[in-house]
Design goal:
With 154 residues, the protein is mainly alpha-helical. It contains 10 helices and 4 strands. Helices cover 63% and strands 5% of the residues. It is globular.
Length: 154
């Protein structure tokens, strides 16, 4: 997973927390037997890294792991497989990572953090993660209003 993420984001380096969030996203996709690692998995990964800037903000905004998982589990998954899978990055996740790299570059940061990932997610027009945030009453604009905190919190 890390090698693929590295290829898709050029030479970007991830903070330990961002790397863990992506690892957790991968674990979530495997747990659900999904062929594609999507933005919904990345969102769950961000929630799981509770001590990160993104994890803390999501928690303060009312997003918690189990209710988010329960909602995701109820959704129909067209890519679900019965046998264990090795998920590939979905096109929307590739877009998310590219946007996160740009976020880090604009901020003058040499490492991609959970804050960059969440800000990039909030800048996407369409994704399952955005739909999930909206379901819980969290708008992309509200996430973006915490830009400074997310960038400073790494």
């Amino acid at each position: 997973m890390e090698a693929k993420a590295g290829r898709d984001t050029g030479s970007a380096r991830f903070t330990d927390q961002a790397r863990r969030a992506l690892l957790y996203a991968h674990e979530e996709a495997v747990r659900l037997h999904h062929q594609a690692l999507g933005t919904k998995h990345v969102l769950i990964g961000l929630i799981r890294v509770q001590e990160s800037a993104a994890g803390q903000l999501l928690y303060r905004l009312g997003l918690e792991l189990e209710p988010t998982r329960a909602m995701e589990d109820r959704l129909a998954h067209v890519d679900e497989q019965a046998a264990p899978v090795q998920p590939e990055l979905a096109p929307t996740t590739k877009e998310l990572l590219e946007k996160a790299v740009k976020e880090a570059g604009r901020a003058g940061h040499d490492r991609l953090s959970t804050g960059h990932l969440l800000l990039a997610m909030a800048s996407m027009e369409q994704s399952v993660a955005i739909d999930t945030l909206r379901h819980f009453g969290i708008t992309p604009e509200r996430v973006q209003s915490y830009r400074q905190e997310l960038l400073e919190g790494g």
